[in-house]
Amino acid sequence: MGLFRNDLSTSILKSKTGMSGVGILLCLILVSIFTMVFVPLDTYKQWNNPSSWTSFPKSALPSWVNTFLVKKIPEHQLLENTQTTIQTDDNTRKIIQNFEMDYTYDYFPNDFIYQYTVEYLGTPVLEFDVIRPDGATLHLLSYSLPDLKSNTAYSDKVYSDKVFSTNESIRKNILLESDRFAFSIDNMPSEEVIFSKFNAHEVLKGKYTFVTKISTTDTRSAIHDSKLIVGGKVFGLIGTDDQRRDLAIGLLWGTPLALFIGITVSVASVVSGLIYGVFAGYKGGKTDESMMRFNDIIYALPALPFLIILSVTISNSIFLMIGFLMIFGWVGIAKVSRSMALQIKNRQFVEASRTMGQKSSKIIFKHIIPQIMPYALASIAISVPAAITTEAGLSFLGLGDPSFPTWGQILHDASTHGAVTRGLWWWVIPPGIMISLTGLAFVFVGNSLDRLSRIKR
Amino acid sequence: MGLRRYLATRGIILFCVLMMTLLLTIMLVGSNMDIILKKGVSIQIRTELTENKSLVNSFKDTRELDQFIQNRINDRIKILGLDSPWYSPNRIALSMYKIITLDFGHATFLSSDSGSSLVSDIILEKLPRTVLLFTTATIIISLIGIFLGALAGSKTGSKIDKMTSSFAVISGSFPVWWIGMLMIFVFAFTFHLFPARATPLVSPNDPGYMPALLYHMTLPLITIVLIGFGTWAYLVRNFMINIMHEDFITVKKTIGISQSKIVFQSALKNVAPPIITILALSLSGSLGGAIITEAVFDWPGMGRLYFEAINVMDLPVIIGATYVLTAFFLISIFVSDLLYGYLDPRIKTM
Fold first, then answer.
1. Are residues A44 and A81 in the same domain?
2. Shared domain check, A68 and A44
3. Looking at the structure, do residues A292 and A216 belong to the same domain, yes or no?
4. How confident is the model at residue A7 (pLDDT cuts 50, 70, 90)?
5. Do A425 and B306 touch (CB under 8 A)?
6. A58 in a structural domain
7. Per-residue pLDDT averaged across A261-278, rounded?
8. When you count CB atoms within 10 A of the terminal residue's CB, does the N or C end of chain B come out lower?
9. A74 and A210, same domain (yes or no)
10. Residue A141 is part of which domain span?
11. Are residues A31 and A93 in the same domain?
């Protein structure tokens, strides 16, 4: 066995494809570990909950496309406040927060949203201004927050709200400044005015500072959480989908899932097929005949239609799906390992141990199965891609487990939202590449293992 | 004798498989089927009553009417044999008998393009389209595959051999349906060369339907061929390599017969049996595997019918389509066994 393990690693490392297969596989495993350790588990549980993705842009391109473009597309930005100043007098308190951003893009942003959570008593006034790169200050909004005492729902003195760029008061405040613009801003969305030059309707690049000021008579009031979202059309490494989900997170979570599905299915079906086939071959006679007839029956069942019916009628839970895939996975392995067992059982060392009176279970596990091990390992690697693509295919048809963001699931969403015909390539290409890459890695490893098992035979 | 016995056992096994598939399908969808059938009966009786106004008016109050309807429904259910549960041997035997004689009944939701709701009509309408697309694809794939495989196998280690092998491995790892999405993206969305949906907009009765269908077929056809031929070429190559080491080839080489003549005449003839077997298998195997591909391209064939039936849980259609797909699959296994026995005389002596 020790010698065999040595052969194993040298044969994989010798061939270039084997090496690259191992390389890709290592990367995928690292990605899985990274995902499980660093990406919050919440993102995965909330994958199908649209309300947890509201601060993300809708179908945004990946942000790296800007490197290839002459005119830069604005990036979606979630800004935390850069500076908080609190001025406290005897009975007044001003909380000022600054949000700074460097706007260097060639298009106007989609919108902007100010999100905040404040704790207060009374009715403080919220003011919202922007200082532009040219030094001009535009006053956007001032309004008083509701008195929480009158509203029993907010008994805990905490109030959260969002200010949208479509806010009517912001529009009116900006219209007051229409003299400063050399063009008509009457029917223009607020963000296009705020980010525009005075003399022409073009993007004014540079540093913008959004300032929010809360003035109150309550000296204990505080801003708990605040965020400024400047809506853009590119976001993250992979972009986002129609439901504003960050596709990078979906792809990351898909990696451990795909490896889990593929490896579980292939290991379980190869092991059961191996034992079934070896047992049939070793016993021979009537046992062999009837076991192989049963094998023939499963072999002739049309797999995909059955998998579909099973997942529709019984359950589409991912664990049951793994079980269903195993039902169809072991058959071919059983056939081959039976014929191998037939050869091996007539060799002298097996016959010797039989005459010595060893139990047949011991002979099978001690003498026959170790001989077939190289073939079994190769089969495990080679049958992983089939398991992954079949699961992806079922998910693609909408029969997968909706609670898990698998790659097939993402492609299913893309297909139902017409991503292909709308040209949302970043939604379609990455999941498919991940599926194919994973498949390729296992095929590469499997092929070099297979070569070894042929030599040994 | 050997061959006949072999074929007989194969035939019996395949028939058993067909029956088992049917039994499994009926068992899996049976309980749902029962509910649907019973609902159908009560709807039928209620509509019969609403059409018969004089009968409805002869009742004194609604309770009496309800009583009457309930009795009618119970009678009808008894006549149809629905009173015993779906798993009673009688009912399973009856439904299996019906299906074997190709009596699939009426579809619950779906209908054929011509408006018929008979499951056999629907299947007969969709089957030719699937055959058209996938048979054409399989034939093209096998032709390219045999040619490339023969070339690669006769010159092992050459550039063409390496390219064929690596293409086979790589193309085998891509899901066909994903490549289909990419093809739609490139050829339908970016270049507007082909339509994105493969269902023609012309009505099937129009004389222009066939050309439209063929035009819509191009994109799926290219995709299937692109993904398929690599694996084929690789298989043929491996068969060829074994043959090229045989003595008679070496003799022919030493006599001085040209390489291409050896490859395409002598060697190919000898790899014919396994190739034809695989051809028979993949011809019908493609019918079942077409479900996802047809769903991507929206090709109006058996695969999409199956997918639609699953989506709306149209059980008679599901059972009918499963039966037809399985039957085709098994027939092709049987035919390939037959062919193998015929083409390779060695098997007769086994």
1. no
2. no
3. no
4. low
5. no
6. no
7. 94
8. N
9. yes
10. 63-230
11. no
Mark yes or no for CB contact A436/B17 under 8 Å.
Answer: no
B235 pLDDT higher than 90: no
**Interface with B, mutate which of A397, A437, A442, A445 (most B CBs under 10 A):** A397
Helix spans in chain B (H): 2-51, 53-57, 62-80, 89-100, 119-154, 159-173, 176-183, 209-244, 247-255, 259-261, 268-297, 302-312, 315-343
Domain co-membership, A297 together with A203? no
Domains: count for chain A? 2
Contact B266, B153 (CB under 8 A): no
User: What ipTM goes with this model?
Assistant: 0.81
Output phi, psi for A215, to 5 deg.
-110, 130
**pLDDT, tens only, A72-108:** 888 888 888 777 888 887 778 888 888 988 898 988 9
CA-based nearest residue in chain B for residue A407? B178
Question: Would you say A221 and A232 are in contact if contact means Cβ atoms under 8 Å apart?
Answer: no
Q: What CATH number has the domain bearing residue A311? A: 1.10.3720.10
Domain endpoint, select from A175, A200, A230 = A230
In a domain, residue A328? The reply is yes
Mean pLDDT of A218-239: 85
pLDDT of residue A430: 94
Q: If you ran DSSP here, which 8-state letter would residue A316 be given? A: -
**Last residue of some domain: A180, A204, A230?**
A230
CA–CA distance, A352 with A290 (Å, rounded to integer): 28
Closest CA to B243 of B154, B163, B148: B154
Q: Greater confidence, B95 or A277?
A: A277
Supply the pTM of this predicted model.
Answer: 0.83
Nearest by CB to A439, which of B25, B173, B289? B173
Chain B interface disruption, residue of A304, A435, A447, most B CBs within 10 A: A304
Q: Using CB atoms and an 8 Å cut-off, which of residues 379-398 of chain A contact chain B?
A: 385, 389, 392-393, 396-398
* CATH number of the domain residue A218 falls in: 2.60.120
Give the tokens for residue B135.
């048979």
Query: Between chains, do B173 and A385 touch, taking CB under 8 Å as contact?
Result: yes
Whether residue A316 contacts residue A400, with contact meaning beta carbons closer than 8 Å, is answered with: yes
pLDDT for B350 beyond 90? no
Q: Which chain B residues are within 8 Å of A428, Cβ to Cβ?
A: 178, 181-182, 185
Count CB atoms within 10 A of the CB of residue B201. 9
Q: What is the DSSP letter of B349?
A: G
pLDDT in tens, B54-102: 777 777 777 887 888 888 888 888 877 777 777 777 778 877 888 888 7
